[in-house]
Structure formats: structure tokens, C-alpha cells
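## tool: complex_structure
## caller: assistant
## args:
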Amino acid sequence: MKPLILLIEDDAQIRRFLRAALDSEGYRLQEALTAEEGLVQATSRLPDLILLDLGLPDRDGLEVIRSVRQWGQIPILVLSARGQEKDKIAALDLGADDYVAKPFAVGELLARIRAALRRSSARADGPGSVVRFGAVEVDLEKRVVRVDAQEVHLTPNEYKLLQVLIQHAGKVLTQRQLLNEVWGPHHTEQAQYLRVYIAQLRRKLEGNPARPKYLQTEPGVGYRLVTEESAQ
Amino acid sequence: MAASRTLTRETILAVAIVATATVATVLLRDTLAPTNLAMIYLGGVVAVAMRCSRRISVISSFLSVAAFDFFCVPPYLTFAVSDYQYVLTFAGMLIVALVISTQTVRLREHAAHAAAAQARTEALYRLSSRLAGETRVFEAARAATALAEEVFGARAVMFLPEDGRLSFRRRTSDVLPVPPSEESIAQWVFDNGHKAGLRTGTFPDATALYLPLRGARETFGVLAVLPDVALNVEGRIFAPEQQHLLEVFAGQTALAIERTMSQRAAEETRFHMQTEQMRSSLLSAVSHDLRTPLASITGAASTLRSQGGRLPPETRDELLESISDEADRLSRLVGNLLDMTRLESGGVELRRDFYPLEEIVGTALQRMESQLEGRTVITELAENLPMVFVDDVLLGQVLWNLLENIVKYTPSGTPIELAAFEKDGAVILEVRDRGPGVPAGEEERIFEKFYRGQSGNVSDNVRGAGLGLPICRAIIEAHRGTIQALPRDGGGSIFLIRLPLESRK
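## result:
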């Protein structure tokens, strides 16, 4: 059966074009106009993905993320206003999977939806034991990284950081999430560590560290590993 | 007190002079004729008139005649006269003495008047020249106070109002030379516009004399003058002509303050008018820039709605493309306007941290990827570049705006270079292109809001609202850096950003 998408959005015009776009892609669509209604639909219909507008009339969209994450891992894609980095970070830290800033092109939104759905179905199996992107090959079992078939030495923290990024390939990870996973919960404010390690990883893995293809920065928010597979 | 003391002193002096003349005549009366002895007395009268007031001079004239009669006209030591022709001598002597004394005193008074007038003119001239260049009210008051102390040899202080009420807190001297309780006297003077305090009809027991600084329209403050005990010139400021001068002085100060204030008001009005003018020209530019894409969108959409079925597919695609492009343009414009407004109203808080520059450069290039297709982009970032202390999102926006400008204004296919290096305690970031370059003389103007380049090869629909570069400058200046456009050897332009390296605090 086609995936079911729950759209929680109060603006009629935006619902109208999203309905048309999602419909033509063959998704089934459930619409909710308020946070309250959205939460009811989420629990009763168990959609495959939630498209969530943060500016809802009755409640803050962030609260929807918080309640959904209390009981399930349904992928949540946030529609945020441009320039609201704080909201994006808050949404991601609460467990949202991705965000698209308004105004957005439908093509981009559809790509993000596909990637999120794929990640959620792949989550059960986890990443394969060997992950490849560009000239990079990471053997997760043997903990070996090769670039152009040449083994590259990574420090334990660099490897751990890469591993976390691979686990969530295609997904934006906030600085806080990365610091927490690699260095532990007591270092979540030390974003400078993270930047230095990312820069080092880029030097070791990317052809031109000033034009990274894989280790991409989401300005003001965090980082995302883009592999060919996740970018489809 | 002072006046009576002066009187006593003059009386003693007059008596002493007459007594000296008498001693002289007594010693000489056997050798000189009595008429010649009268001359000695007349000399004494002149001496008295030169030093003393008119009243004392007249009295000493009579006293001299009496002494002459008593000591020099036989029979001696009586007022009786042996020869009646002496009566004529007495009368002549008295008349001469009176004329001499009156004239001498008058002459002296004239000289004193002239000197006082001279001093007054000089004092007022100095006041006006000292206040002429002063554009701030408080500084004008301070200068006038200093001059008042000098001219009147007294302690002086000016009080200026705060929120319509006079306040001892707003004063021109560091220490308060009068008791704080006299604030109410100063307030009374300020409210009524009449002088009060020491030696006036109102509050005569006060320690100081309070004069209003009364201009043509209102009272600007109060001048307090008090005798300086140390200088021991207590009487000076209370002489009638000095009192008058003090009042003129206060009036002149008030006029100077009034002029200062009206100058300021005129400047503010002019500034306000300029701002208004700028605002309305900005508004017309913005509304033009907003309306143009809206008109295209509305036109294309309504055409598709009413004639969509009859249009060939290519035309439909064209119209759809123009809707989408114009919407993008509108979106960028609104975004820029919001950014500019936020930057200008100080609503943007820099979220600065240390970042590797290559990360910010990389992000900007990544965001521009689709538009940079077909162009060579060369990045030359120096090895071991120190981390920069910036707001990554905003600096990224600067690079993005610069790159977008290059894409818009330079021929497709021309290369773009991004270079960064450290120099003189700053990180220099250069964005270079091989386009037509910024026209000479417009290097600064392109950073002005809503300024559009004159380069003819750019059609109206690729132009933005002329906000990209002003936003760049606002962001870089918020980082205490500079941004400028330079011509490039071999054609093209260089946008040079200089970010001073700063420590965290």
C-alpha cells in the first residue's frame, strides 16, 4: 500500500498545492488543521510520515513533536519559516527528522519525504556493514576507512563522529545531538570541538574541504552526511 | 556696612588733610600773607576732592574756610575778624574750594564711569565671543559661569532645568556653593523671572543673589552669584552699575542659550526632513520592486486560468516558468527587505563563535551550487588560517549575496575565485570575478540602499532591489570589519572583506 502522510497545516492555500503534489506522487494524504486534531489523527491513523507546520493556531508545533516522540518514531518533517534557526534546532533536538524552509519548491520537499521514508524503513536493518560515498568506503565491522582504496587513519573520535553521521545518513544532526553522541552529555555546549573534528574529517575524506560534497553544513543548525543513496 | 565704613575712612582722611594744611599755615603764618595761606587750604581741598566723595569734599571746603579764619586771620584762635575785607577772602576762598572740589569729584566720577563702561563692554564682548561657537546648551552655560566669576570677582554657578523644573543637580560647578535649601529660591526666580536673594527685596537673607537667565521667549535657568569671602571683594558685585551689568550678563547668556537651542532645533528639523525624503524614495523603490514581479505572476496566472486550454503547451510552460521565477524573485526581495530591516533596527543579535572559514565558504558554495553550474570556482584558503569569530549564518549570507551578484552581473562561464589569508591581525577574504567590473566612481555607491548599477548589459529582470550589498556591509560592520569593492588587474572586480581577529571577550 502507498505510504500515508499526515499533513498538519492551517493555511488552506499551502494545503491545496501540497495535496495536489502529494496526490500526483501517489501518496495517501490525511489533513489536520490544528495541533490538537493532528495529534488525534497521528495516534488513530498511525501515518508513515508527518508533515508539520510549526506555526499552528492552537498550539506550538514543537509540542506536537514532543508528544509524538513520547510514543513513536514516525518520521516528522517540519515546514519552518525562513531564517528561524532557533525553531529548526529546537524541532530537530526534540526528534524531528528534517525541515524545509518556506517558501520551498515542491521537488525539494518530495525528495526530503522520500529520503525520510527510506531512512525509516532502513532503520530496522541498520546500515550495511560497508558504506560507500564517492571515493570513500567505510567498513563498519572492521572499523576501516578507505579513500580511493587507500586506508586513511582516523582518530577514535573522528571515527566515532563519522559513524554517527553514517547511522543518520541524509538526516540533519544538530550540534547538540552530535556532541552528545560522540563526546557524551556533558560536552553539548562545546561546539568548537565539533567544528574542528568536522574540518579534519573533511580534509581526510573530501577532495576539496572548502567545497564538501558529503559532509555538509546546515548553517546555524548542524551537519548532514549526504551519500548518493540518501540524496536520491 | 561697607558704605558707612567708606564714609568713616573718607572723613578721617579729609580731617587729616585739613589738619595738615592747618599745621602748615600755623608754621608759615608769620612769613606769608594770609591770602597766600589760603592757597595751602585750597591745595588741601583739591587733595580731598581727589580721594573722597562729593559730600566730604564740600564739607572739607567749609571746614578749610573755618580753619583759615580760626588759625590764620587775626585775632588768632577766634572766628572774630579784625579786618572786614577778610569776609571777601572767605567768600572767594569758599567759592573756589567748592568749585574745585565739585569739579574734581565730577571728573573722577566720569573717569570711573568710562572705565566701568569699558569693562562692561569688554565683559559682554568676551561673553558673546565665548558663547558664539558653543553648540551645546550646557557647555554655553559653563563658559558663561566661568566668565562671570572672572568679571565679577565672585563665585558663580548656573542651574538649568530638568523636565521643566529647576534642579540643583544640573549645575555648572562641581561643588554646590549654596545651601541645598535655597533650591526653592532658585525655583522662585526661575518661575517668576525676577531676581531674588541677597540684598534684594525677596529672600534677602539668602547666601547668594539669584538672577533669571531670561531669553526672548522663556527662562532657561538661574545664575547664582555670591560674594567670594577669600577674594574679599564683598561689595563689588552689589554696586549699582555692577548689578546692572550682572543683569545684562544674565540676559546675554540666556540669548546665547536660546540661539544655541534654535540652531539645534533647525538642525533636527533638517535631519528629520532628509530622513523623511529618504524614506519616501525608499518606499517608492520598494513598492516598484514588489509590484513588478507581482504583476508578472498575476498576469501569467490569470492568462493560464482564462485561456489555458487554448494555449500551445510551450506557451503554457513559459508562463508557468515565469510565475515560478518571479515568485523566487519576490521571495528573495522580501527576504532581503526583512534582513535589512532587522539589521537596521538592531534586531539582529550576532550569535558569534569560532568557525573555520572553509566551513562558511563551503556552505555558501553549496547553497549556490545550481547557479554556479558551468563556472570555474577556485578556492584559495591559506593553510593554518585561524578560526574566525563570527556569526556563521550571517557571514554565509554575505558570501551568498556576493556570489549571487557575480552570477547576475558577470557573463556566464567566467571564473570566480575565493581567497582567504591572514594579514595585519585580520583575516582577509576576497571574492574575485572577471566580469565588467564596478564602474569607476561607483565603488562606494553600490553599498548604498536601492542603488542600481548603471551597467547597461543588465536587464531589469535580473536586477534585485539593490539591497544585497548594503546587507553585506551592515553584517560585516556589525562584526567590526570592513567590506569594499576594488578594481581587479586584468578586468573584473574584487570584493575585499576584512575581519579583525578578536579574542572571545
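## assistant note: The two ends of chain B are 68 Å apart (CA to CA). DSSP finds eleven helices and twelve strands in chain B. Handing back to user.
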